[in-house]
Amino acid sequence: MTTTSIMPKQQINIKLDLQQGWLNKKTITLKQGDHLSRVFVIRVTNTFPLNLTGYQPYLFVKRPDGEVLSKSCEMVNASQGEFMVKLSSGMLKSSGTVSAEVVIGKEGEGTLSFPHFTYTVEESLHDEETIEEEDINIAWDLINEARSAVVQVEESYHDFEVRKEKDFADFKER
Fold first, then answer.
1. Which of 18, 84, 85, 107 is least surrounded, with the fewest CB atoms within 10 Å of its CB?
2. Which distant-in-sequence residues (6+ apart) come within 8 Å of 114 by Cβ?
């Protein structure tokens, strides 16, 4: 039986304009501990899309506990001002309202900040460590299965080589 392996993710699209602010404003509620599975895809404009070729976008967040974190973003379509960022466990650590700010920078050319947007982090019943321990056990099971499969392939190949050598020797004797 073949199974398909997928990583569930939630993509949240955000449009920020330099003058008008958050254009597609909506309530965003995320869960504590859902790190690397929540992805913001952000498009920045100044009435028209900004060409970010050669620039680096960053996401700064201020958690409810007051701590400020930052993360560099990955370009999706630089000429259209579109990039993405996977939220880290630190960005989803404290429950409550998180304030986020996009900053675009280029060394020697300054920085440009966009109006804030917010998201809410809801308390989760699990934490990262409880999932990771189970994941480690699953990973070891998969590694052991892979090792067994490799050994079987190696044994089959060895048997094949021995048969071919024997067949070749028999052929030479005829």
1. 107
2. 16, 17, 18, 44, 101, 102, 103, 104
- C-alpha 8/C-alpha 113 separation (Å) is 31
- Summarised one tens digit per residue, pLDDT across range 50-102 is 999 999 999 999 999 999 999 999 999 999 999 999 998 889 989 999 999 99
Q: How many CB atoms lie within 10 A of CB 90?
A: 13
C-alpha to C-alpha distance for 148 and 132, rounded to whole angstroms: 24
Separation between Cα atoms, residue 16 and residue 103, nearest integer Å: 11
pLDDT, tens digit, 9 for 90 and up, residues 138-160: 777 777 787 877 888 888 888 88
- What is the rounded distance in angstroms from the CA atom of residue 92 to the CA atom of residue 97? 10
